[in-house]
Fold this sequence. Notes:
Layout: E1 3-15, E2 23-35, E3 39-43, H1 50-58, E4 65-71, E5 74-75, E6 86-89, H2 101-112, H3 120-130, H4 146-158, E7 164-168, H5 176-192, E8 198-203, H6 206-212, E9 215-219, E10 226-231, H7 243-259
Parallel strand pairs: 3-8, 3-9, 6-7, 7-8
Antiparallel strand pairs: 1-2, 1-4, 4-5, 9-10
Domain ABC transporter: 12-246
Organism: Salipiger thiooxidans
Family: Belongs to the ABC transporter superfamily.
Amino acid sequence: MIPKVSLDNIDLSFPDASRPDGRKVIYEDFSLQIEKGSFTVLLGPSGCGKSTLLNIINGLLKPNTARGIVIDGTDLRSEPDLSRQMAYVFQGPRLLRWKTLAENAEFGLRGLGVQPREKWRDLIDKYFRAVGLGDAQHLYPHQVSGGMRQRASIVRAWVNEPQILLMDEPFSHLDEITAAEMRRILTNLWTSEEERRTIVFVTHDISEAAQLATDIIMLTPAPSKICLRRKVDLPWPRRMDSDEVIAVEKELRHAFAERAGIGF
Length: 264
Ligand SMILES: Nc1ncnc2c1ncn2[C@@H]1O[C@H](COP(=O)(O)OP(=O)(O)O)[C@@H](O)[C@H]1O
Ligand SMILES: [Mg+2]
């Protein structure tokens, strides 16, 4: 395995006045490797520290102590510029409502500052087309559906052609039908590129994890531990109702019950 991201021996706690020792421990001696080119799904209950983990990988949040926060063999703390190889997709689309979808993507390009300006127009066209929004990029967020807004937010990240995409429950606020369509669009985009980007996708949705992941990392409630790590070696495109995906989903439900003490 070639690790794209390696977190080594992370400790993180937050102040919490309701506890006798005044702290809530989120991670203790926590380590995690994410394989290059994988679609890694971090699956865990709300509050276990999934968003926190993305923020640590991105360098936005510093753990209390860590032996390593390593991207491509280099520690992020000695090379903060590494975070410009990463782009975020959040739970809500977070588009600027006074800018068109294309201008929002441009905002993403300006933010990371990794693509030369003369390529912006082509990149924007290319990725809006790739998610089926070729004709909608000149519309404003309020003129399009929630699913289209979330697609635009994926484009805003993807135009940077980042080596790592950090996706924090990007479809959890969408209705199930739209979410299913988004998963198809996302995996089509991801598998269409010869050299696949590394995706770190956070969710608390077990069936979503089974459908999307090449690698599943299941986390327990905080202080969070990895209670299951599993490859999902199924071809693309995947169907949510295929026997194979349903079998993985079942196994994940059992693992949650047995290893994390969470029943469904
Ligand atoms: N900046 C912060 N200050 C204090 N507590 C925080 C902060 N960020 C997160 N937490 C706490 O850390 C825990 C994990 O948060 P988070 O990573 O957002 O969970 P998840 O994304 O898995 O739902 C939660 O209990 C949350 O309240
Ligand atoms: Mg979260």
